[in-house]
Amino acid sequence: MTNRNSKQHNEIGMIGLGVMGRNFLLNVADHGFLVAGYDKDVSKVEALRRESKERNIQGAENIHEFIELLRKPRAIIMLVPAGAPVDSVIKDLLPHLDKGDLIIDAGNSYFKDTDLRADNLAVKGIHFLGVGVSGGEEGARHGPSIMPGGSKEAYERVRPIFEATAAKVNNLPCVTYLGPGSAGHFVKMVHNGIEYAMMQLLSETYDLMKRGLGLNDDQLHDVYNKWNNGELNSYLMEITGKIFSKVDEKTNKRLIDEILDVARQKGTGMWTSQSAMELQVPIPTIDLAVAMRDMSVYKNQRESAGKVLQWPMLIFKDNQNTFLNQLRHALYTGMIITYAQGMALLTVASDKYNYNLDLEAVARIWRGGCIIRAGLLEDIQNAFHTRNDLPNLLLDPDLSKKIIENQEHLRYIVCRGAELGVPVPALMSSLSYLDAYRSSWLPANLIQAQRDYFGAHTYERIDSKGTFHTEWEKK
Q1: How far apart are CA 157 and CA 155, in angstroms?
Q2: What are the helix (H) ranges across 105-182?
Q3: Is the pLDDT of residue 5 over 80?
Q4: Which of 261, 339, 389, 392 maximizes the CB count within 10 A of its CB?
Q5: How far apart are CA 266 and CA 348, in angstroms?
Q6: Which residues contact 12 (CB under 8 A, 6 or more apart)?
Q7: Is the pLDDT at 20 greater than 90, yes or no?
Q8: CA 297 to each of CA 199, 272, 290, 293: distance values in angstroms, whole numbers, following the listed order
Q9: 69 with 120, same domain?
Q10: What are phi and psi of 70, to 5 degrees?
């Protein structure tokens, strides 16, 4: 760390020097910006100092010292856990700030909290940005996807820093101003919901290959590596292949086989489902991914149920290569449908919350740095470039053609999963979403009739406008 005068004012400060905060601050410094970091945990400040070396970074051990290190008007990034910790940091900051200062929440905050904080701070003359950051530790250090929302004027103050530190694809930074208020955090929330679904889809292919085909870890490694070289190319596919070759230092066995089959959640997937229900946008593949994480937690009950609700594992008689080819196509179809659900939610939310989202730009900044980056996002970007008011990706001519070409493989895999007794709910829900979305008629007329029968909730007719009620028991 450079030995600069402590009163030299830095361009931006970071509160929260955990893995993400420290690495992002190092990233900013690597691009020539003067930065300062602060954390209540002094050991994290010391860790920053050790890693800083000759970079333009200063560490502070108390908030007063930290504030003194920042150039006015101040710009401060928070990278702390969502919820109460964010409000606690803001409370600590306020006595030290002046009108015109800027606070940036770069954590995974719930978008409604972001709107509330922005409104409360605006009254005090403090600017606020809600910024989604995706890419994990590696992304924070070397280039994440950054999703900013809030005041456009405030964003312009930090735009050079974000554009310099973001991941680059074709020399374009994976960051853009998304819209007012909580637009950035909403987009990040949906990103995470898509991430949940992609991980669930991949885990279902793993289950089918492990319990259905009996493939070992080396074979699974080879399959995912091969898939990553084709249309399924993505960050999640890449790391999945690597996972199966990792050896556990403790047991000298494959690490994947030593990991408990329980996957908890931190909330962003659940928030995505809740928001979709509030906006009445169906996203069943994402919903199922959240539900299956919840199901995994019931480990003891699942073990007991397996003894009571027995189902014989059938002998797999299909040609292995044929099955793997169909599984690849099924996964590809599920991925398209998952993106379609997420983008449909963004479309409706953009209108409801006046975000005015540019979904072509969203797809563009997701192509690099973030967890759900995938080759498929090039097609998605092109779809919204061709038609910026596209209500659903399944209506895009090119993507719909891919769905038509691959849907038979998804149907086959879903059937085989059901026959084998291997749960594939995300693949199933993707297929059901496809079939429901393409159905010009759905049996919702029966639901209308049932509601009117037991609750006099009325119904609509095909041949007349308005609402109607029938005395169903009347002769």
Answers
A1: 5
A2: 111-123, 136-142, 152-165
A3: no
A4: 339
A5: 25
A6: 28, 33, 35, 36, 70, 75, 76, 77, 158, 161
A7: yes
A8: 16, 20, 12, 7
A9: yes
A10: -100, 140
**How would you label 391-420 residue by residue, b for 16+ Cβ within 10 Å and e otherwise?**
eebbebeebbebbeebbebbbbbbebbeeb
The residue segments making up the domain with residue 292 are 188-437
- Supply the pTM of this predicted model: 0.95
Confidence of residue 54 (pLDDT cuts 50, 70, 90): confident
Tell me if 3 is assigned to some domain. no
What token pair was written down for 206?
């793993």
Which residues partner with 234 through β-bridges?
374
In angstroms, the CA 375 to CA 395 distance is 19
Neighbours of 298 (CB within 10 A): 12
Token pair recorded at residue 275 = 């928001």
Which residue type, as a one-letter code, is found at position 292?
Answer: M
pLDDT tens, 224-256? 999 999 999 999 999 999 999 999 999 999 999
CATH number (domain holding residue 78): 3.40.50.720
**Residue 44 within any structural domain of the chain:** yes
- pLDDT at site 8: 58
State which amino acid sits at residue 56.
N
Three-state SS sequence of 254-299: EHHHHCCCCCCCCCHHHHHHHHHHHHCCCCHHHHHHHHHHHHHHCH
Say yes or no: 433 and 449 in one domain: no
- Max avg pLDDT among 1-15, 313-327, 421-435: 421-435
The type of residue at 343 is M
**Helix runs in 298-396, H state only:** 299-308, 320-352, 359-365, 376-386
Instruction: List active site positions.
Output: 188, 195
In this structure, what are the phi and psi dihedrals at residue 357, rounded to the nearest 5 degrees? Answer: -65, 140
Final residue of a structural domain among 126, 150, 181: 181
Dig out the tokens for 465 from the structure.
């406008």
> Is 1 among the domain residues?
no
Rounded Cα distance between 206 and 193, Å, is 20
- Report the number of distinct structural domains present in the chain: 3
